[in-house]
Amino acid sequence: MHRGGDGPAGHSGLWDPADPGVMRLPSGRLVRGRALRQGFPGGTEPTFALYLLGREPPEFPWEARWLRWPDFWLPRDRAATADALGEAWARSGTERVEVGCNGGVGRTGTALACLAVLDGVPADRAVGYVREHYSRRAVEAPWQRRYVARFG
Question: Start and end of every Tyrosine specific protein phosphatases domain (predicted)?
Answer without folding.
Answer: 76-133
